[in-house]
Amino acid sequence: MSFTVTEVDHPIVKDALAHMRSIETSNANFRGHLNRLGIILLTEATKELPTRTVKVTTPLAETSQEILADAPIVVPILRAGLGFVTAVHHVLDDADLGFVGVTRNETTFEPELYTDKLPADIGGRPVIIVDPMLATGGSLNHVIDLIAPRQVTGTITIVCAIAAPEGIEAVRSHVNDRWGVHIVTGSIDSHLNEQAYIVPGLGDAGDRLFGTPRNSSAE
What we know:
alpha/beta; Rossmann fold; two-stranded antiparallel ribbon; 29% helix; 30% strand; globular
């Protein structure tokens, strides 16, 4: 099984990330720029999806055209992964969404599952996991372990705005040729700091998308 990483080089990606990284960007604008970024990343991530030929009648003639062979299953990792949903609906309007809720223990940095809304049987359909940040890789590996046994037959695609080298290597080591994985990201950043945050990063994506919860230690 192959493990590949694509860092998308595109002016819109660079522009969107520059705005998302800035502490001066409001929550509303952060959401907008993540949507712009998500459309570009998802376009890249889906360019190898299988297609099938159908007959289409235009106002002038009948013609053969290609459409997606199967609607993908897209899995946002809650809560920050919800920031990609609008982009998913733009690019993959027939996709089914399954949700996984994973939080990071801020003491151990280990993932903790709190909800699993995935189909019991993927049925060989393409799977795309979306989460703005790939930091330690712990949450992503946890989600891969949930998804892979459910009749996944092809490559699992991961879409993230930014990724840390440590997280990429953690996923590579974890899948260890058991499954095909393709990571599509807007930027491979420098490193993780002692708190396991990506540097230079963009802060806490969930907080910047939806605001800081009242019970957050950040308050």
